């Protein structure tokens, strides 16, 4: 029996309580050198659900694992059918006030960098530069045989041509771009191969059960080392890929601030957790710093 990924975490009763005052975040940003680490919670206001919040997708959906994807042609058919449908929604998503606020902080020289656990590209669409996609991006596809990369929109066109009339209605869209479909809805969906070598195509994202590339992890560790403080936005920090940077910052004596409505696995390492929705909280912080969130044509939405 194949092991499922660790996707849940039960908060301890002794975690420090959250606050509804975003002033500590404004104070940290005012001194500059802030490294942002964002998670799925920052994209919920763009119509992309998170994994673990109220109504999160993990209550009904187990994400695809790398082991299942590589071992089973049927699993790949199911994944690509669901992901192809989900991509239509992802492709229409636009940055929200939280993404635009982060971009505005960057333009005003307050950030040392942005690391995101999200695969939706919304930070970049909002105007943030030098974003590290910790878990990759759904906008790229990689061949597992020859390593060739290609744009997702090209694959979408090929899948449309190979599956004319594929128009199922999904029950929901998940943070990884996967739509909820039944096996009957997936049917005999046709998967297309790599145009270079005929190999298996995979989205350029880190699946559950797959390791983040070591060079990317090391780059992020350097960003944490160089930062004055770490600001976590919309991540439960359940998985180690993000939590390790919080632990690194705390061990180095750097302030860790978290904006997340619910408790997180990193709360015990944080100076404070602001228990507010991301968009309103960051807009309030920007206002206190005198930074217009929508100036200089911030964002594309």
Structure report:
With 301 residues, the protein is an alpha/beta fold. The chain is 34% helix and 14% strand. The protein contains 10 helices and 9 strands. It has helices at residues 23-31, 66-71, 73-92, 97-107, 122-126, 152-162, 183-186, 214-226, 240-251, 278-288; strands at 34-38, 111-116, 132-133, 136-143, 149-151, 201-205, 229-233, 256-259, 272-274. The strands form 2 sheets. The chain has a 6-stranded parallel sheet with strand order 3-2-1-7-8-9, with helices on both faces. Strands 5-4-6 form a 3-stranded antiparallel sheet. Helix 9 (240-251) links the parallel strand 7 and strand 8 (256-259). Helix 4 packs parallel to helix 10 and helix 8 (214-226) runs parallel beside helix 9 (240-251). The protein is elongated. The model is unreliable at 1-6, 52-60 and 295-301 (pLDDT under 50).
């Amino acid at each position: 029996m194949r092991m499922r990924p660790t996707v849940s975490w039960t908060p301890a009763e002794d975690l420090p309580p959250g606050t509804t005052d975003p002033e500590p975040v404004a104070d940290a940003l005012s001194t500059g050198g802030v490294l942002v680490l964002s998670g799925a919670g920052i994209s919920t206001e763009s119509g992309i659900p998170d994994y673990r919040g109220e109504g999160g997708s993990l209550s009904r959906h187990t994400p695809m694992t790398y082991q299942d994807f590589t071992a089973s042609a049927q699993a790949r058919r199911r994944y690509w059918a669901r992901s192809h449908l989900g991509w239509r929604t992802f492709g229409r998503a636009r940055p929200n006030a939280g993404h635009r606020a982060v971009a505005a902080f960057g333009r005003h020289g307050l950030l040392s960098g942005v690391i995101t656990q999200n695969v939706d590209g919304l930070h970049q669409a909002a105007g943030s530069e030098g974003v590290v996609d910790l878990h990759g991006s759904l906008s790229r596809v990689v061949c597992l045989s020859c390593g060739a990369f290609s744009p997702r929109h090209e694959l979408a066109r090929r899948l449309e041509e190979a599956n004319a009339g594929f128009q199922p209605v999904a029950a929901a869209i998940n943070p990884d771009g996967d739509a909820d479909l039944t096996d009957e809805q997936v049917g005999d969906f046709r998967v297309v191969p790599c145009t270079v070598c005929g190999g298996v195509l995979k989205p350029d994202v880190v699946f559950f059960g797959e390791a983040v590339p070591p060079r990317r992890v090391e780059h992020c560790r350097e960003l944490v080392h160089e930062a004055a403080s770490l600001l976590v936005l919309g991540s439960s920090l359940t998985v180690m890929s993000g939590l390790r940077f919080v632990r690194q910052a705390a061990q180095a004596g750097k302030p860790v601030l978290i904006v997340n409505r619910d408790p997180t696995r990193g709360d015990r390492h944080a100076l404070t957790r602001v228990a507010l929705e991301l968009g309103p909280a960051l807009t309030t912080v920007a206002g206190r710093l005198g930074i217009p969130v929508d100036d200089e044509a911030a964002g594309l939405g």
